[in-house]
Design a protein that fits this description.
20% strand, elongated, five-stranded mixed β-sheet, 13 strands, four-stranded mixed β-sheet, 11 helices, alpha/beta
């Protein structure tokens, strides 16, 4: 994603942030044609009408006005990049230096596209950045967020338990970390009974995936992410309207994979463990049932009121494991 950024060039389209309070002062410095155009559009630099494209005398894009009124700079630049998508020139965001990195992040994220299943025609825009901005740092954040989006956007037919665990393994490899997983019947022998119960009816076996990274003498941080690759609701079947977005029920796991990648890329001084309980909550003769009583890793028993409450069951086992792995206390010094 670093190709969204370029050094300062000879010509670019400015993105100009304005508030309702500063719009009049800015207009006084403009020519009559620009003032007439802004007035004709009834532009007031409000967040609910934040963007205005300014043409030059030849009808080409000359600038983008972005109403901010306290909006985060990354959102302003993101919206402006979308509005200016028809232009082929580089853009530059005219904001104070300390906000420019956030603006660059928003600019790049606004151009995210999911291209796994179709060819993307849209050409990416480029934002000019001065030498003082760390392009690599911004690009690391963009890449990690794009990874999370790609995982969540992939439908369950291609992002089942095996594929999600493989994505975690790929991330561990990129990070220089370790990956392991407990799969299928091994969940019972290693005492993850709730994860096994929720996922046992699916074609692809349930699992607990683990990523480990960092030095042993650094503070230990444990992240847990819910990885339900599809949630039918189990025998308490969801209606269609509630099932349409259930490919995203693994969003917690996707987020933790992306966060882990960013932590490693930033070389933070922590020892990181990521625990991902990964299942599909499916229906089959072996599916767990309402009023079943399940045992969790901690030894507690749970009566099932609804099989659509699968997330808290798999997280119970993962959180018990996280607690037992002795993460550093909240009072540990952090950087």
């Amino acid at each position: 994603m670093s190709d969204h950024f370029a050094p300062i060039g000879k010509r670019s389209v400015p993105i100009i942030p304005l508030t309702a309070a500063t719009l009049d002062a800015w207009l006084k410095k403009q020519d009559a044609r620009t003032r007439r155009w802004v007035a004709a559009q009834n532009y007031a630099a409000r967040p609910d009408s934040a963007l205005l494209l300014l043409p030059d005398a030849q009808g080409k894009l000359a600038a983008v006005l972005a109403g901010i009124d306290g909006a985060p700079q990354y959102l302003v630049a993101g919206g402006a990049s979308g509005a200016a998508a028809g232009g082929q020139l580089p853009h530059r965001c005219e904001v104070e230096a300390e906000a420019l990195a956030e603006a660059a992040l928003g600019f790049a994220l606004a151009q995210y596209q999911f291209g796994r299943y179709r060819k993307l025609e849209k050409k990416a825009l480029v934002l000019e950045l001065p030498a003082g901005i760390d392009r690599a740092a911004v690009a690391r954040r963009v890449d990690s967020i794009a990874l999370v989006r790609d995982l969540i956007n992939t439908p369950a037919g291609d992002m089942g338990p095996e594929a999600l665990a493989a994505a975690a393994q790929d991330a561990a490899k990129r990070m220089g970390g370790k990956f392991s997983q407990v799969v299928g019947e091994e969940l019972l022998t290693k005492n993850y009974p709730a994860i096994h119960a929720v996922g046992r009816a699916a074609t692809q076996a349930p699992r607990l995936a683990r990523i480990e990274w960092g030095k042993a003498n650094h503070p230990h941080v444990v992240l847990v992410g819910k990885g339900v690759t599809f949630d039918t609701g189990g025998l308490d079947l969801k209606p269609l309207s509630a099932m349409k977005l259930m490919k995203k029920d693994m969003g917690g796991a996707a987020l933790m994979i992306g966060l882990a990648q960013l932590i490693a890329a930033e070389a933070l001084k922590i020892r990181l463990t990521v625990l991902l309980p990964i299942v599909e909550n499916a229906i089959d003769g072996d599916a767990f049932r309402p009023q079943d009583i399940l045992r969790t890793r901690k030894g507690l028993t749970v009566e099932i009121g609804s099989t659509d409450a699968e997330g808290r069951l798999i997280l119970a086992d993962a959180l018990a494991e996280a607690s037992g792995s002795r993460p550093s206390s909240s009072s540990t010094r952090r950087r």
